[in-house]
Every structure is written in C-alpha cells, then in structure tokens.
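Researcher: Please generate the 3D structure of the following complex. Treat every line as part of one assembly.
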Amino acid sequence: MTTNTLVEYADASAEVRAVYDDIMATRKTDWINNFWKAMAQDPATLKRTWESIKQIMAPGALDALTKELIYVAVSVTNNCNYCIASHTTSAVKKGMTPAMFKELQAVIGMANETNKLVTGYQVVIDEQFKLPFGAGK
Amino acid sequence: MTTNTLVEYADASAEVRAVYDDIMATRKTDWINNFWKAMAQDPATLKRTWESIKQIMAPGALDALTKELIYVAVSVTNNCNYCIASHTTSAVKKGMTPAMFKELQAVIGMANETNKLVTGYQVVIDEQFKLPFGAGK
Amino acid sequence: MTTNTLVEYADASAEVRAVYDDIMATRKTDWINNFWKAMAQDPATLKRTWESIKQIMAPGALDALTKELIYVAVSVTNNCNYCIASHTTSAVKKGMTPAMFKELQAVIGMANETNKLVTGYQVVIDEQFKLPFGAGK
Amino acid sequence: MTTNTLVEYADASAEVRAVYDDIMATRKTDWINNFWKAMAQDPATLKRTWESIKQIMAPGALDALTKELIYVAVSVTNNCNYCIASHTTSAVKKGMTPAMFKELQAVIGMANETNKLVTGYQVVIDEQFKLPFGAGK
Amino acid sequence: MTTNTLVEYADASAEVRAVYDDIMATRKTDWINNFWKAMAQDPATLKRTWESIKQIMAPGALDALTKELIYVAVSVTNNCNYCIASHTTSAVKKGMTPAMFKELQAVIGMANETNKLVTGYQVVIDEQFKLPFGAGK
Amino acid sequence: MTTNTLVEYADASAEVRAVYDDIMATRKTDWINNFWKAMAQDPATLKRTWESIKQIMAPGALDALTKELIYVAVSVTNNCNYCIASHTTSAVKKGMTPAMFKELQAVIGMANETNKLVTGYQVVIDEQFKLPFGAGK
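Model: Done. Output below.
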C-alpha cells in the first residue's frame, strides 16, 4: 500500500495551505516541519491539532518559554525523540540558555527519580498536601 | 517482618535530625513530610537525596516556581499521585495561580498527545532541529 | 487557596452549559461526569477538549465500540484508573461483552510483554515492515 | 562476548523449526521476522511466546484486525518502534485502510491527552462508572 | 451488566481448580490471590498465564529472589500498586531483607533518573557498548 | 547556538578530570563514556550524579551484578536505548551469561504483561500483601 506520507506545501489543498500559512505566521518561520506535513494527510486532524496547539502554547499566565520547557519535560519523560529535538530547538529560539537547559534536565531527572522512590516505598499522601484544582470529593 | 516505616523527628538519630533541620530551614516549613520520613530509614539515602534536591531545586537560571512546574509536569506524565499532590502544593506556595495551573495542565495534556501522534506516524526528525546540548556525534 | 473544583450544571455559565448540553445530547446521557466538570473551570479548555473528543470518537472508518476499545488499551497501558473506569463503562454501553473484555485485556497484556522483549533484545526492524503513513524519508 | 544473535531457519534445530513452520502456516507468510529469530535463542521462550500470541491474536469475540489495532495502540503508547512497524504492517494486511489508520492515531493521541488531564486534576472516579470485570471488592 | 468478578476456589470448575492447586503447590501457599481469581474468569487465560509465570519465575541461571527483585523493579517503574505489594511481599518471603529493599529502591530511582538524563541530552551510544543478544544487524 | 556537547578528557578542567579519574579508577576502565562527557558540561551535575551512582551501585546487601540486572530491567521498561546498551555491557562485564540475559528479559516481559493485566482488571490488593517498608499509615 502506498500513501502520500508528507504533504508538501506545493501539493497541499487550499484548506491545508491555510493552516500552513497560519503556522508560519504565528511561529514566524518560513517552513513547515514533518509533524505538520504528516498530520496534513487528514485536513480535519491538522486543523484541530494546530488550533489546540495555537491556543495552548500562546503566552498567558505562563510565558511562551516556560510552556516550551514544560513541553520538553513531558517529551523527555515520554522518550519522544522527535519532540525532544523539536521543542528543545523551539525553547532555544524563545530564549533558553545552556544554563537553563542543564537545570531543566536536572529537574526532569530528579523528578523521575523521586517519583519512583515514592512509588517503591508506597508512601501515603500527607494531609497537608492540597489536591489540585478540580479534584472533586 | 516488621519495620519502622516512617522515621519521626522525635525518634530520629542526630544524623537524620540534621537533615530534617536543613529541610525545614531551606523550605521554611515546620514539619517533615512522609517522603523524607520514608527515606530516613537509610540515613545515607536521605542525605544524598536531600542534597541533590536542594541543589537542583534552588533558584538559578530557572526560578523556583518554574522548577516546580516542571516537577509537576513530570509527575503527571508519570502518574505519581504523591508527587502530584506534593509538588502542586509546593507550586501554589511559590506563586502558581489557578490560571497558571490550568495552562500547565493544558500543555502537559497536549504534549502527551503530540508525543504519541509523532510516534504513531513515525515522523522523521527534520534537519533544522538542533539536538540538545551534549548530544554527541 | 480555595478553588471551585468541579463546575456543577446548576452553577455553570451559559457558555459552559452549552457544552454540557452538547455532551449529554451526543452521548445520550442525563448527567455530566467529573472529568468534564473539572475541565469546565476553564471554558476554553472545556470547549476545545469536547470538540476534539466529539470529532475523534464519532463513528467513522472505525466504529464507536472499536474506538472505545482503543481508548481502554491506552488507558490501561498508561495506568489511568479514572479513564479505565470511564471508558470500560462506555465500551460496555456500546456493546462490549465479557468475552470481548477478556480478549481486549489479553491483547493489551501481551502487547506490553512483546514491546519489552523486543526492546530488551534491541531487535532491528525488518525491511519488510512498512513504516506507517506519514513517516517521511 | 559473542552470541548467535538471530537464529536463521537454516541453522535452527528441529524444535525451533517446528515453531517457525507453525508461525508461517498460521500467518500465511514465507519468512520469519527478527523478533522470532531473537526469541529462538531460547527454544522454550520461543515456544511459550508463540503459543501465547497464537491464542491471543486468533479471531474470537474481537476480530483479527481489531486485535491488531489494539496492539498498535499499546505499541505507540509504549513508544516501541519495532512493534509499531511490525503491527502497523500486520494491520494493513488484515484490512486497515489509511482512513482507519488516521482515526486510530487520533484516538491514541487523544486518549494520552485526557489520561494526563484527568491525572493532573486528580479527578475522583464517578459512582456511575462500573469497574471492569474481575475488579474484586 | 453484572459479572462474577473473582472466581473463588469453592465456585471454580475442575479445570480452574487444577490450576489453583498447582499454584498453591508450587508457591507453598494455601490461598489464591485476587489476580489469579480475576484471571480465572477465562480458564484458558488463567492456564496460559500461570504456565508462563511458573516457567519464567522458576530458579535457573538467576535465583528466585533475584527474579522477584527484577519484578519489583519493573512494577515500580510502571507504577503498578498491586504488583508492588504482591511482589515485595514475595521477595520478603524469598529472603529480601530491609537492607536489600533499600538498595533495590535506590537503584530503581537512580536508573529512572539517568534514563531521563541520557534521553534529555540525546546522548549517542558509544561504540564500545555491546548490543544485547539477539540484536540483529 | 553552538555548544561544547561532550567534554573530552583533554579539554576538561581539573575539577572535571578529578571526577573522570575517579570513574575510571572505580570502574577499572581507561575511557569515559558519552553520558559522563555530556554531564560534564556542568561540573556540579557531573559530581553529584557520579557520587550518587558510586554510592548506589557499590556492592552491598545486593551484589554488583544484581544491581546491573535491576538497572537493565528499569532501562528496558523505560525504553532507554543508551542505558540498555550501556548497562547490558556492564552486566556482561560483571558476570551476566547468555542464560542469565534470557531469563532477565523473560521476567521483564512477563512483569510488564501482568502489570497491565492487573491494571485492566482493576484488581483489589489482597490483605495478605505487606506494603513495602516506609509506606506510612
């Protein structure tokens, strides 16, 4: 079975190009990466995913760089090489210095360690810890 | 087999109390949580883990709140309930507002989604993405 | 810090109620579960998440039950108890029999086992295996 | 230390060949993939693993294609590249169309997202959700 | 939908009782745990799973205690509370002392940390490291 | 942005060389692997990580080989290719035979399977299972 694996701008429908244009305008880039080209095989998926990312990654209570650092933290924990490369690059573009990078990785590493220590010891949650918002009763 | 599961301050050796005191002084708290009480069963582990956390979580190129947000991101991705409760509380103490919390969770959720989309599609890493520092050749 | 953790229908804004109504109409239920009530703390998140779920879980090339089975498979692999309970219930509503449930769990278990066997042995991918759609070159 | 990494049919013992023959007969193929060749280093492991897979993946209450889709869902969630390539190929052989593939990936992605949203918000399980079969009391 | 969730010995078929008897004889216990009672809903699954466990966990090149330690390491990394309780108990029965337990958890924690450090830095594998057996070329 | 990705011995500061020397002395090797060279970009990280590893991996209640087997088990479960190659090599150096390797992988695979079976069935923890040390009440 053959498929068009990545949808290049030149081959894209008007619907897809509209999304590509919005990505480039929002991110101030002049190229489309392979992730979006793969998603573009289904224009509805491309649109929905881009609209979500656009909303979620826009600076808000957290600034854009902080959001990229969080994205890297998840991607490293999940061992996703594409996302690590993509979002580390993005973080650098948004201002991550080598010092920030090293501190970020140190926190990710330590969090993974203590997550497992607490799990292995089956430590009971202290009363003093507040459950996050929306926990329910 | 019975064990002393959590080492209370009152029952702690001088070596362990020294660490407990440093934790409370550094974190400006007057109590020791169950995680540290569990680690204290082996004073060497307690000391090593605390010294690492103390170093890693100190404000630096990244401020203390940003480090907690990263810690929460890893803990949610790893599904560690103790750490989620503990570090969400800590983040609130360090200034995380409800708006920040919601944005944090939205990024964590979206990152987990795109990590898997990229994996399911086996997308090849673009040349333009810079590998992180220390990648090697 | 206190927060409104779950947004009950009675307390919801018109914007949130509109989404709640759509959820109940689409799913043919007369109640809103805790997940949506938690998301509703941020109406934009609620709307975006619901619209995505609605699109993605609608019957298409894959029918609704098959989509729930996949959802359960991911939730079990990720160890998400809320999602396991929620989507197992949903799958039963959509026609999953006990026999289907047991086969589903057997596949999930076996897939997790062979995923790790192949990883531990670092087996090289055979030429004959076609990379998924959108893999890129 | 050197080892025979993959056991080729030509070099296999009668015991291993018997399993290889059964794999090819059951799957209607004329070749053995690297995973089985790796397992074959221990004939007992090869036999046990094949017998389990044969039982579990046989069409039953769930058809063969549905079982492959579940296998892909787990493999993507676990980030196992070998299994993704192997089982995506298998799913295509069993009838997965590009449309099914895209819907499958969309569900996997969304499930990973909502798994984490629910975890980050620590949402309590609703009474109305039925625990799966075999949950115990 | 109601189901018989756990199959008690008293209610079990002869086929299931045969497996229960073998479990108790092999493990030198006089009771069946909830995991096996859940699996027993499908006698074929029960038999296949027990036969695999019996084969895999029998003392061999690795002794029984070492195998339990490995089982705990996987269960902690996967955050599976049932398995952590079950296999930690089993390890204690087979000779794990508190000192061994603490060292085990320390290794699990550290391994999780360095796994992520290496991933975050995208470190390239050194030539000197031998790929495991069965890696293929 | 350019960075010195790996810190070679020849280019290392006295502080870093001191750690490199200790690694080689402790491990009886005459080279430094890429992981340490990457960590060395931040001497404090290098020192802290090495001191932890040195403490944790030293033979104690568990011998050195057992600790490597546990490290491999975690690394396989986490799908960390660098660590799998590195620690499998290390385990071989410390005495892991092919027979041990195969048994190790079989346990890892089976543990991953039963972890998910128990999760999918949401099996309740039996009273008879002792919670690990440090669980708290």
